[in-house]
Amino acid sequence: MSDYFCRMLRQLLWLCFLLAATSLRAQDPTQDSLQTADGYLAQGNAYFAEGATGEAILAFERGLRLRPNHATLRNNLRYVREEAGITAPPLPEFFLVRWWRTVGAAIGSTTAYVLALVCWWLAVAAGLYWYLRRRQMTEKRRFVLLPASILLLALAALCYLLGQSRYAFLHRTDEAILIAPTAALRVSPTEAASVEAELASGQRLLITDRVGDYVKVTLEDGRQGYLLVGELAVI
């Protein structure tokens, strides 16, 4: 009975792996999208040559979403921001967050999900095998198998969290770039509201609220106000 059960577990493991490899592929935009980091780099360079600073910065930022450690994208983004007179430095990321995102970009959300599923079923199989054969096993194998199952469970949880984090990062909708040549940052979401500042194209913004045709944003220097939806584009 136990041998039959073990064979069924192996077949189920391979079935789950094949299903995951096909059905989860569509969840990772880096796999299905025609856009790549190098594609965004070329797009940003073309926009900058045409004088479209906002669109160039937007393209570079989108490329860095896909490959956070792309050196040319980072250098070009820094250069264009300086040329546009954007002096506020972007907030530095904590090194663990940067490392986590780099690993997520290298693996991809689909691969992380598949690894999580494989580790999960291996852990279940190892645990059940240990339970069914623990009396016939040597002491050494019995000692190793159960900790291995626990370690695989931990790896499954880690891979799942990595996949979720990567997927959420690629689908953020609260970061944007000002693409209009100029825009009025208003103190309230109405056309009659007083203007707090005139913004130049290329400013990086954090969207905190949406009110009709306006969005409330926070600038890199901490200032807040309202802009028209059409004046910016989500990264």
Question: Helix count, per DSSP?
Answer: 8
Following the backbone from N to C, one meets helices and strands in this order, namely HHHHHHHHEEEEEEE
CA(first)-CA(last) distance: 56 Å
Average pLDDT, all residues = 83
Shape annotation: elongated
Please explain how this structure is put together.
This protein is of the alpha+beta class and 235 residues long. It has three domains: 90 residues; 69 residues, Tetratricopeptide repeat domain (Serine Threonine Protein Phosphatase 5, Tetratricopeptide repeat); 60 residues, SH3 Domains (SH3 type barrels, Roll). Helices cover 58% and strands 16% of the residues. It has eight helices and seven strands. It has a five-stranded antiparallel beta sheet. A two-stranded antiparallel sheet has the order 2-3. The termini are far apart.
Give a brief description.
The protein has 235 residues and is α+β, with helices and mostly antiparallel strands.
Keywords:
58% helix; alpha+beta; SH3 type barrels; two-stranded antiparallel ribbon; elongated; five-stranded antiparallel sheet; Serine Threonine Protein Phosphatase 5, Tetratricopeptide repeat
What topology emerges from the helices and strands here?
Elements: H1 2-23, H2 29-32, H3 37-49, H4 53-66, H5 71-83, H6 95-107, H7 109-133, H8 139-170, E1 175-178, E2 182-186, E3 195-200, E4 204-211, E5 214-219, E6 224-228, E7 232-234
Antiparallel strand pairs: 1-4, 1-7, 2-3, 4-5, 5-6
Helix pairs in contact: 1-7, 3-4, 3-5, 4-5, 6-8, 7-8
